[in-house]
Design goal:
The protein is 52% helix and 12% strand. By secondary structure, the chain is an alpha+beta fold. The chain has one domain (2-102): protein bp1543 (Ribbon-helix-helix fold), CATH 1.10.3990. It has a two-stranded antiparallel sheet with strand order 1-2. β1 and β2 form a beta hairpin. α2 (33-45) crosses α4 (71-87).
Length: 132
């Protein structure tokens, strides 16, 4: 298992800092190359630059009254959720449908249902994890 990660291109976990202007304020964001690559894929899909998409995420987060004191972590989670949705078959990388046009409510409801099912399974007295 570890060889998949250990032998991956070490460039993926090297950091890159990018300066951008959000709402008139210059800020710097430091992320691993892996996350910059994922943000580029997402922004390309929605026909935006990475800076435009980051600004949009920031402003929409403010509008939703989210605590964005650790915005860099939020961006990492956005990338991870995007890749998780692809892995779960909810999105495809080949799809040209912008994420802004995806039925987010439906996906969020499915995730919530799956989470409840998983919690019920794990809390069942008959549940015994398999150890191989």
């Amino acid at each position: 298992m570890c060889q998949l990660f250990i032998n991956a291109d070490s460039k993926l976990w090297s950091y890159r800092t990018k300066s951008l202007r959000i709402d008139g304020v210059v800020t710097s964001i430091r992320l691993e190359e892996f996350f910059w690559d994922t943000l580029e894929e997402i922004s390309f899909r929605d026909q935006m630059t990475v800076n435009q998409m980051i600004t949009k995420l920031y402003l929409e987060s403010l509008d939703a009254d989210h605590d964005i004191s650790n915005f860099t972590s939020f961006l990492r989670v956005c990338c991870s959720r995007y890749l998780s949705l692809i892995a779960d078959g909810k999105l495809t990388r080949e799809d040209e449908l912008p994420l802004g046009e995806v039925n987010a409510q439906n996906i969020l409801e499915q995730e919530q249902l799956r989470s409840h099912q998983r919690k019920a399974l794990f809390s069942s007295p008959n549940y015994k994890p398999s150890i191989n």
